[in-house]
Write a structure and sequence with these properties.
Blueprint (H helix, E strand, L loop, with lengths): L1 H26 L12 H14 L28 H8 L5 E7 L5 H17 L5 E6 L2 E6 L4 H9 L5 E6 L2 E4 L2 H30 L1
Antiparallel strand pairs: 1-3, 1-4, 2-3, 4-5
Amino acid sequence: MRNEIIIYSIFLLIYVNAIDDRKSNKKKSWRDKDIRDMNDADLELLLDQWEENDEPLEPDELPEHLRPSPKIDLSKLDMSNPDNVLKVTKKGKSVMMFVDTNEDLSVEEAETIMKIWQTSLQNNHIIAERYPIDQKRSVFLFHEGSQAVDAKNFFLEQPELSHVTLEGQTYFRDPKKQNERMAKLNKQASKRNIKKDNSNKQEEL
C-alpha cells in the first residue's frame, strides 16, 4: 500500500509540473523569444510591428503606383498648348520617349550622338535613362514626366534627329515630313469617317 501511495504521488507531481510548463509556455509572448527561436509566424508578427511603428513615407518617396495623383484644375489649363497640358498631366509620372536619328548616320555616329544628347540633357538638369532598342533608335525614360516636353523640344533642334515619338504622337524635325505625316493622318481619319457614315446609312435603310 505504501508503495502504491509513493507511485501515485510521483505521477501526480509529474502531471502538475507538465500543466505548469504548458501554462508558462502559453503566457510567453513571441516578443520574449530569442530571434533564433522564432518561427515564420513570429517573424511575420515582428515585421508587422515594425511597419506599424514606421513613420509614413512622403508622397514623393512612395513607389509611383502608390503616389496620390496631383490635383489638376483643368479650367486653368491652356488646352490650346499641348506642351503645357502634357507637362501638367505627366508631372511626377514616368514617361518614355522613342528617339530616332537620321538614316544617313552610321551606327557608330548614331550611338555617339545619342550619348551626347543624353549628357546635354543632364547638363540642363533633365534626367533620363537611355535604352538602345535598335541601331539608330533609343528609348529615353524620364522618371519626372514633365521634363519629357523640354527634352522633346531639345531633340527637335538637333540636325541629326529624324523624329521622336512621345505619348503616341510622332514629331519630325523636318517640317516637310511633319506636314506629310499630318496629311496622311488626316486622310486616314477622313476615310474612317466616310466608312462610318456609309455604315450608318446602310443601317438606316
